Amino acid sequence: MAAMQYASTRGGVAPVRFKDAVMMGLASDGGLLLPESFPDVRDRLAAWAELPYRDLAFEVMRLFADDIPEADLRALVEKSYATFEAVPPAPDQAWTGPEPVPVRPCGGLHVMELYHGPTLAFKDVALQFLGNLFEYVLAERGGELNVVAATSGDTGSAAIHGLRGKKGVRVFVMHPAGRVSPVQELQMTSVLDENVFNIALAGTFDDAQGIVKALFSDLPFKTAHSLGAVNSINWARILAQVVYYFYGAFRTMERSGAREVSFSVPTGNFGDVFAGYVAAQMGLPVHRLFVATNENDILCRFFGTGAYVRGKVVPTISPSMDIQVASNFERWLCLRAGRDAATLRGWMETFASTGTLQIAPLPDGSLDPVLRAGRAGTERTLDAIRRCHAEHGRVIDPHTAVGVAVAEDAVRAGETAPIVCLATAHPAKFPDAIAQATGDASLAFSPRVEALKGLPTRKFPLPADVRTVADFVAARV
After folding, report:
1. CA torsion 216→222→226→228, rounded to 10°?
2. Catalytic residues
3. pLDDT per residue over 187-242, tens digit each?
4. For residue 127, which of 187, 42, 213 has the smallest C-alpha distance?
5. What is the spatial distance between Cα 347 and Cα 349, in angstroms, rounded to a whole number?
6. Domain 106-114+236-443 carries which CATH code?
7. Which residues, including other chains, have CB under 8 Å from residue 378's CB and lie 6 or more apart?
8. pTM metric for this prediction
9. Are strands 196-202 and 169-176 parallel, antiparallel or unpaired?
10. Domain-by-domain residue ranges, the chain?
């Protein structure tokens, strides 16, 4: 089998191998890196369906990370998921040992719990792996890496906990000041390791994300300061998330006897949905991927109309989804353009200059055979939290609730495949929303969150200005 190569969506970078793609983060031409092809694994699905999570992760990842010796890759996987709580599978499923991402029924839906890592969010699934991967590559090659990241809440804390204390790595995380939950902020600012710098940015997540892209697009600055990325622009983030789509599908088909599944994915930056899209391209029997948005519904509007139109960020009770420009959307656009870099560049230039992009539908009237979208505003989100607790004894966070509400819409609209809802965060991270929905803040409890209260904190307030952030990074490298 030919070696796996990664190319930029914008066509200006020579293909690179996996480790180089990981260290590059954002491609040096401003594009995002994509495998030149996706492996077809349909003949492996039956064997993979029986595997515990860690073994499945190794099998999926080794197809994309074929420049890492298999023994080393397996050790990286084992080390990464050893930090997760050991959760038993649901009672009606076969025992393969404690698993990091259990799948449990919730009424007629299936909920995949992705929040059993160190920071109680799905980002841990990828960032525990990525932190160990950075350290592994730096030990092999020497040098250092200065990670610059933007967060709407969960990525920042997961990145910090994945990278704290790692040899040769510093991490600079920007969060929009006053626009993340108190627990999310505490998880970030209570980490006082010398290699961690938490920046409270006077702006929105989109402002922070724009600064990250500007710093990476400044090639002399990026090279001189050895910048690296942990946002979902880094391909390793997507790869680690691809695994749980296979795992969730296998567990759900085992329970339901179905031959295909659908997923409802709470969405801001499109990275989590794109990981599911990759799994479908590899041959996982995915009927639909439902892109679930809150009031910041640029993606929902796009998949309904074909018009991708930048709006103003609206603060909501699901703050990790308060995003208007979805950075991973470019990867899907690249595939939609048939991997034609010139077409993709034209689209991105149009959107950058006008804030609008129009894509023609396919002959069947859709934008994609697999992707559909839905929207759930604050009241419907609160109602989903309230009903899940009252009717099923399940407490879900507001992001997961958006996915549940959109999944319920899909069922009412005639979706017949079983739907897996991605539970992206522990409810303890959002006690105010749980209290607002149920009247009982004590339902939002986790010992890990309680242990944070009263800890000393550190953060660096900065304006949403590229030069100021660049100077801050340069002064500490």
Report:
1. 0
2. 123
3. 999 999 999 999 999 999 889 989 998 998 898 999 999 999 888 889 999 999 99
4. 187
5. 6
6. 3.40.50.1100
7. 294, 295, 316, 317
8. 0.93
9. parallel
10. 106-114+236-443
